[in-house]
Amino acid sequence: MHQVKQKESVSFLPLPQALAAPDFLVSDFAKFERPMQLHLGFQALDAYRAAHGQLPPPSDAAAAAEVLTRARELPGAVESLGAAGSPEAEASERLLRNLASGARGELAPMCAIFGGMAAQEVMKAASGKFMPLKQWLYFDAEECLPDDGKEALPPAETAPRGSRYDSQAAALGWSTQEKLGSLRYLLVGAGAIGCEMLKNWAMMGIGCGEGGHVTVTDPDTIEKSNLNRQFLFRPWDVTKAKSACAAAAIGAMNPAAKVEARLDRVGAETEGIFDDAFWGRLSGVCNALDNVQARLYVDQRCIYYQKSLLESGTLGPKGNVQVVVPKLTESYGSSRDPPEKSIPVCTLKNFPNQIEHTIQWSRDCFEGLFRQGAEDVNAYLSQPDFLSNLERQPGVRKTTLEALAANLVDKPISLEQCVVWARLRFEELFHNQIAQLIFNFPLDMATSSGAPFWSGPKRPPTPLQFSADDPLHLGFIIAAANLRAFNYGLKGSTDPALFKKAVEAAMVPEFVPKQGVKIATDPKEAEKAPAAPPPDEDEASDAIVATLPAPSSLAGYRMTPVDFEKDDDTNFHIDFIAAASNLRARNYKITEADHHRTKQIAGKIIPAIATTTSLVTGLVCLELLKLMQPAKPIESFKNGFVNLALPFVSFSEPIAAPKRKIGAKGAEWTLWDRYEVDEGRELTLKEFLAYFQERHKLEVTMISSGVSILYSFFTNQKKLKERMPMTMSQLVQEISKAEFKPTQNSLTFEICCNDEDDEDVEVPFVQYKFRGW
Predict the structure, then answer these.
(1) At how many degrees (to 10) do helices 415-427 and 496-504 cross?
(2) What's the angle, vertex CA 753, arms to CA 752 and CA 754, rounded to 5?
(3) d(C-alpha 707, C-alpha 546), whole Å
């Protein structure tokens, strides 16, 4: 089934008519009146420039007053700007004053936002794809100005100083510019968003002044497919570290940039690197990640260390921005997208109906044939207890042993033998398995309700007959044989004549259907716990073990597993997956996919385009400008959602951190709160319990650290007596066997408590300092 979108003709008013009767794309319904006010303001600015030959100077009250006067002379001004002296007029006058004062300014984030939007519109005009913007879009971020722009900046704050930041200071002021230079930020990820973010930061001067610093960390290396959207990288950077190349490129853009490149993944295993001291120095954190697990970890660290977090993501023309403000908003992990739907196993194995199903199936085949099989051989040869461990896995023992035998007993010594192996795999995958499926479920079979079995999503398959003259058939043989040769360190080839000749020599056994083969037809059935293996399976497994060569007879021998790499077009990886997927698609009469689409799906490439990335990072940087100004109210911050294809732009106020209460009479708290226990010395368990009883009127009934329970009201009295004089750090080491990192000064405890009414109450976690005073 294919979705066909109908063409639509779009017409636009000429500029004079559009100016008189504007059609706005409203992006922020909290500023519903702004588009018309800005529409008048920009016309007034244009008139001012026509009269004076230049835009108004920053912080020039007379020029701002003239712009306001010109705006009030335009049609519709009274309705949009408000009558003189009214509260509406006061707000609109402030807006136009700020517009006039910042007219000569230039902010990298604004350039990124409007540049991304304009570039997408150009592509729409050139390609006819996606709906163009109709017809006016106005966007302002007045909240980025000091004190939300309520007061005009003094001329000394905006006067040029012969600096590369003159145009930015013209809008924000030099005090703000100096604060930007002193910021210390952690950027997690140096991919598409990371590159664009670093570029914006360099242009804005973030971390470029006294005391400023930017740490960018990414364990990834640059792949060829990165070059089209991660614009700091060049072809000669392929295989190099992303963070190092990005930092070097930014240094060339702004020599004052202080960027430290790291290759460490931010996770539990690197808490000794990103320790208390590191987090304590940070002004904030910005994520440029591509997976939810890493985002959630960074989110938890930001909560623990009370740091702001800038979160964003893109998917093709879609993008989103979320700002997390300590003690004010909910965290990234407070709300969660639903998990991605997985493909049922029985659909993948026997009943595919979409090309995505066959591509995933071929990807699984690739892993099983060329990676897992080789790793199992190496484990068998190097681990003395491999076979005994395998006995404890009855569900996979026989298949693993069969693969071992196929890889060790039938070990090829030439490429021709690899070709024969590939020909037999073709027969097994695309003929025999399909024929067995039809034998189990004949094409005229009906279900218990009388409906045809092969109906709906179940497509009746057809076994393939091999032909060396079919390019797809031969392509599978070439790719599979070369990958098999790689496993064994044999030299490969791409000569079709060699493969055709070797294929003709292959002896292919005639297929005979097997009796008693059980095939799952329902996802729920496939998800059930596997049944116990039949009694004769152990005998069959033992017989296979008897045929395996002893590891001592192959001392030093190892196979080379194939690690999937989507960006090397000469390694046969995508060639194999594309051929296998399309052959299976032919089995089931599914429309085949070309090499590029197969690569995108198999490599799980998330579509990313530079226009969306530019716009999203611009929005993130505007939120960063707000974060660096203390005491901003929650209304000043904006979460953003965009879809450049529609186009759609929407902003909303972040959700406030939910408040909870400690019992009926206790204090309110949010996810940002914790009990900070720092007495300048270690506390014993007895003192710790007394601390909460005396300071907070809470009876602690349970204390846990990680998965270990340190104390509970039901603990054995003898053990309790032993633990009471122990310090809290000794308890953790004694019970959880934890080893403290050299730079670790605090421990985290989860506690359960009863209040004065003996009611169980929910309380924040405890941050306990045990050294480093």
Answers:
(1) 70
(2) 145
(3) 44
Q: How far apart are CA 369 and CA 422, in angstroms?
A: 11
Element (H, E) at 323: strand 318-324
Active site residue 418: no
User: How far apart (Å, rounded) are the C-alpha atoms in residues 237 and 393?
Assistant: 45
Neighbours of 540 (CB within 10 A): 15
What is the DSSP code string of 449-497?
A: TSSBSS-TT-PPP-PPPP-TTSHHHHHHHHHHHHHHHHHTT------HH
* Structure tokens given for 699: 């009876």
Strand pairing class (184-188; 213-217): parallel
Which residue among the candidates 144, 245, 302, 346 is catalytic per the annotation? Answer: 346
CA distances from 116 to 18, 204, 222, 317, 695 (A): 23, 18, 24, 10, 55
Residue 2 is predicted with a pLDDT of 60
DSSP state of 329: B
pLDDT surpasses 90 at 167: yes
Residue 565 has pLDDT above 60, yes or no: yes
Tokens of 490: 């044999």
The three-class DSSP label of residue 640 is strand
CA distance 598 to 658: 44
Contacts of 306 (CB under 8 A, 6+ apart): 326, 327, 672
Say how far apart CA 320 and CA 613 lie, in whole Å. Answer: 10
Decide if 677 contacts 767 (C-beta within 8 A).
yes
Q: What is the mean pLDDT of the chain?
A: 91
Look at the pTM and tell me if it is higher than 0.70: yes
Band of pLDDT at residue 8, cut at 50, 70 and 90: confident
Going by C-alpha positions, the residue among 254, 257, 268 that lies closest to residue 184 is: 257
CA gap 199, 621 in Å, rounded: 11
**How would you label 572-605 residue by residue, b for 16+ Cβ within 10 Å and e otherwise?**
bbbbbbbbbbbbbbbbbebebbeeeebbbbbbee
Which token pair is 244? 């190092």
β-strands 259-262, 318-324: how paired?
unpaired
User: Residue 254 pLDDT > 60, yes or no?
Assistant: yes
Q: Residue 518 — φ and ψ, nearest 5°? A: -95, 130
The residues pairing with 621 across neighbouring beta strands, listed in sequence order, are none
- Work out the angle at residue 120's Cα, subtended by the Cα atoms of residues 114 and 126, and round it to the nearest 5 degrees: 135
Nearest one of 729, 746, 751 to 738, comparing CA atoms: 729
Task: Taking the CA atoms of 296, 298, 301 and 303 in sequence, report the sign of the dihedral they define.
Answer: negative
Helices (H) and strands (E) in the chain, counts: 30, 16
Residue 534 pLDDT: 57
pLDDT tens across 18-51, in order?
A: 999 999 999 898 899 999 999 999 999 999 999 9
CB burial of residue 772 (10 Å; 0-12, 13-18, 19+): exposed
Please, are residues 326 and 306 in contact by the beta-carbon 8 Å criterion? Answer: yes
Contacts of 271 (CB under 8 A, 6+ apart): 741, 744
Q: Specify the pairing of strand 746-754 against strand 259-262.
A: unpaired
Please check whether residue 727 is in contact with residue 711, taking contact to mean a CB–CB distance below 8 angstroms.
no
Crossing angle of helices 355-366 and 573-587, in 10° steps, is: 130
| pLDDT tens readout for residues 147-162 | 999 999 999 999 999 9
How many Å apart are CA 578 and CA 599, to the nearest integer? 8
- The pLDDT tens digits for 491-500 are 999 999 999 9
Reduce the DSSP state of residue 447 to 3 states and report it: coil
Three-class secondary structure assignment of 260-314: EEECCCCCHHHCCCCCHHHHHHCCEEEECCCCHHHHHHHHHHHHHHCCCEEEEEE
Q: How far apart are CA 629 and CA 145, in angstroms?
A: 9
What is the predicted pLDDT for the residue at 529? 44
Mean pLDDT to the nearest integer, 555-564: 91
